[in-house]
Amino acid sequence: MTNVNTKTPSRWQQFLDSDFFYFFKRDKVAMFSFAVFLSFVLAAIFAPLLSPNDPYDLASIDIMDSELPPTWMEWGDERFLLGTDNQGRDILSTILYGLRISLMIGLGAVALQLLLGIVIGLSAGYFGGRIDSFLMRIADVQLSFSTMMVAIIVSAIFKASFGSDFYSEYAILMLVVIIGIAEWPQYARTVRASVLAEKKKEYVEAAQVMGFKAPRIMFRHILPNCLSPILVICTVQVANAIMSEAALSFLGLGMPVDKPSLGSLISIGFTYIFSGAWWITAFPGIVLVTLVLVINLLGDWLRDVFNPKIYKG
């Protein structure tokens, strides 16, 4: 009798053979959006290697180079491809470093939102009763305030309580906490709705009969079946978190001037746009709009893929 050796395909091979990757290869918009987003992520990671100058190194900045136009314009300097800002920093370098900060805040805030939303949503949906009512009323109260209102109030309280110097030193962490606190109810409500549908199924009842404790049932059995809508929300919320950070920085409640994000760069340049130094705001603005656009396009594609009723392939 001949022995047939069947080799189990690797996880990478399983991914390449999956319907998800099949639909991704067929959607040119999704492929282009992912390529652009990946380019931004790599540019942010390798900003110290790609940047012509270090915008954080005060010794390399000359105030005499301030407000120089891009290289191709009259009075442009070949050292500064996209020109300089009001402090003499290279715009291209500040964009690369600012992109890194914006992505860190966006991804960090979404991670915090995800943690809070999953724990609260699972607890509300699984236990039900008074726990469900109490947690959802908190979410309702949270949703009655706009994200920006919550972020402005909390950031103002942080600044008043700990001082501007402390806030500037831990600005990234503060913004992650502020934006994360403002947006968790969307995850909680989505997870709760999924849990209410899942907990009545046979595999949950079987786990309960086997004596598994509630945390194990919630996180190891129910949660994996709720990941599709959560993934879609995560994609969209990264874009929203980046925009929230940009808006807060524009209002002076975000990143400090010496640690520029895309939002703070736009804010700095807005003061000088009427004097003709449009490039200080324009180039960071283009990068920010492009980044948010490709993330939203990826989110729309994921939403369609995970909803077979509307996905056309």
Briefly say what this structure is.
Its main location: membrane. It is built from 14 helices and no strands.
Task: Explain what the structure shows.
It comes from Grimontia kaedaensis. Its main location: membrane. It is a single chain. The protein is 69% helix and 0% strand. It is mostly helical and 313 residues long. The protein has a single domain (28-51, 66-305), classed as MetI-like fold, CATH 1.10.3720.10. Helix 3 crosses helix 5, helix 5 runs antiparallel to helix 6 (129-143) and helix 5 (91-127) runs parallel beside helix 9 (171-198). The radius of gyration is 24 Å and the shape is globular. The model has no long low-confidence stretch (mean pLDDT 79).
Kindly report the average pLDDT value. 79
**Number of helices, where a helix is a run of at least 4 consecutive DSSP H or I residues:** 14
Oligomer: single chain
Instruction: Measure the end-to-end span.
Output: 45 Å
- Total number of beta strands: 0
Helix percent reads 55-70%
Question: How would the blueprint of this fold be written?
Answer:
Layout: H1 11-16, H2 19-26, H3 28-45, H4 47-50, H5 91-127, H6 129-143, H7 147-162, H8 164-169, H9 171-198, H10 202-209, H11 214-222, H12 227-250, H13 262-270, H14 279-305
Helix pairs in contact: 3-5, 3-14, 5-6, 5-9, 5-12, 5-13, 5-14, 6-9, 7-9, 9-12, 10-11, 12-13, 12-14, 13-14
